[in-house]
Write a structure and sequence with these properties.
acyltransferase, Bact_Acetyltransf, transferase, 179 residues, 7 strands, N-acetyltransferase domain-containing protein, globular, acyltransferase activity, transferring groups other than amino-acyl groups, alpha+beta
Length: 179
């Protein structure tokens, strides 16, 4: 299903033609992270609405979102990240000039090769270029690998909120970083 990437070579803006690969990678990574915690039918329903090619195409044409992809030496997409200007979080009401790091997903075979850090730096650079001074995200409290990465990248926990998939309510930690 997923490619066996070479070393990451570039980060670029996602194209509408990338939607199917982003959807495939997003569904795979989301399932690997969450499948054990939700009923299969609820996971399938969530993936259908959030990680279908049509849903990703809609995201790629949304003026409030920027999507970057990381490619390997063979120009295969091995990761992607989203910035979202159209979201808010109550615990950040007093934080000015903020943008959400909505997603950052890395192909499991590319993890540990610096792809996540490369994407994170590129997304932060893009946010700064657009005038944002703070970046926030929500991450499942049980996603230890992601929490460790975000902490290494300078994020700190400032609150939490509920994230619902079907009948399951999970707790996401809200993290913030000054750019």
């Amino acid at each position: 299903m997923l490619s066996s990437p070479g070393p990451p070579s570039t980060v670029r803006s996602a194209l509408v033609s990338d939607a199917a690969r982003i959807a495939e990678l997003g569904a795979h990574v989301f399932s690997a992270s969450f499948a054990h915690s939700v009923e299969p039918h609820e996971l399938a329903a969530y993936l259908k609405t959030s990680y279908s090619t049509a849903a990703i195409q809609k995201d790629l044409t949304d003026d409030l979102k920027n999507v970057l992809v990381a490619t390997d030496g063979n120009d295969q997409i091995v990761g992607f990240g989203y910035l979202n200007r159209g979201s808010d979080e109550p615990c950040l009401a007093n934080v000015d000039h903020k943008i959400e790091l909505q997603r950052i997903y890395i192909d499991p075979v590319a993890q540990g090769q610096g792809v996540g850090s490369l994407l994170a730096r590129s997304l932060e650079c893009l946010a700064r270029e657009r005038g944002f001074r703070n970046m926030w995200l929500g991450v499942w409290e049980e996603n230890d690998k992601a929490l460790q990465a975000y902490e290494r990248w300078g994020y700190r926990v400032v609150g939490d909120h509920s994230f619902t998939i079907g009948s399951v309510v999970q707790k996401d930690l809200i993290m913030l970083k000054t750019l």
